[in-house]
Amino acid sequence: MSGKASPASIAAMYQEALLAHHRAPHNRREMSDATSSAVFKNPVCGDEIRVFVRVDGGQLVDVSFTGRGCSVATASASMMTDALCGGSVSDALATADAIDRMLATGDADVALPATLSPLRGVTPFAGRHGCARMAWQALREALA
To answer: Do 121 and 11 touch, CB atoms closer than 8 A?
Structure first.
């Protein structure tokens, strides 16, 4: 045995991580002391995600979200809050660009924080790319 995980086992691992974030999303809450927030609505399905950020000195001190979305939209928002809280605004925007690049190209070599790796499981499903991007689009608006 090679010790290397099969593509099917990797896909199953990603799917389970996405479902875990959907079932028990992290940082799903309104933020009363946010410095900014923005909402992104998916006109196709009616899903809506609002992202709250608290920025201090170019750092994302806190990131949270509210709204309703499918399993992919909710999981992406949850993972985003985990990955970005405590980091810089410029790193957050670079990560948002990396997510877009990964989804657009399917490039498995796009560098992502480990907490966002399960989003790689969405790349084969073009119809779900918009769901995965919702929170990231709201984040960009909140940081603009």
So the answer is: yes
